[in-house]
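Service request form, structural biology core

Requester: graduate student, group of Dr. S.
Request type: structure prediction, single chain
Budget code: on file
Notes: please return the result as structure tokens.

Sequence provided:
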Amino acid sequence: MIIGTFRSVLAWLGGHGNLVLFVVLLVVAGTWGFVELLDEVQEGETQQFDEWVIRTLREHEGPKWLQEIGRDLTALGGVAVMAMATLAVAGYLLLRRRYGAMWLVIAATAGGLLLSTVLKYFIDRDRPALVEHKSMVYTKSFPSGHSMMAAVVYLTLGSLLARIMPGRVLKLYFLTLAMVLTVLVGVSRVYLGVHWPTDVLAGWCGGLVWALLCWLVARKLQRKGAVEKDDEPDPAPVDEPAFEVKS
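Core staff response, request fulfilled:
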């Protein structure tokens, strides 16, 4: 029953028009979720929930090795790791001479970081002060930059790998892996006491919306030929013939 339903959904999404419509609906839903969260936070409606979650996690923070895992996971959403992951993918695309896709990945990551920074500056929510911070922090709290950038980078890279890999199983694997990493980074921020839960939820919403918008832009640029299509062969090197002439 469940497998049949899943296959039906995949078949429906297989149509290009249906897929774009689905993505647009997700963008609208994510934007609405972010705005609603911001409104509730500014009115103080979420404060009791936020404090309860942080206190509960700190009371049951577990052994030292679990805390170390939390710090390792939170690093996956840090600027250094995000930059290395982006540069690694950009280098791969550069070697394959897919320059349009390379610049798109760089612009998507840089744009996501800029958007997160601007939102933090204008919303100006203080960090939690209920418990000791287990990780260094330098910026404001809403939205969670680690959670947002994890969603931006991992979902963008996951969708990129899903598009170039054959078979639905591999596509689903990469997208699932991207979502799991995004969730773990966000949970670690609350576990370490440096973010309110609503900060993380807002970061996920904002990151998802940005990643989907970048996907729509990439699709549009592919149609115009500004970004290479996934099924296009790699261009031949400029210093080598594109084909061999046999005598």
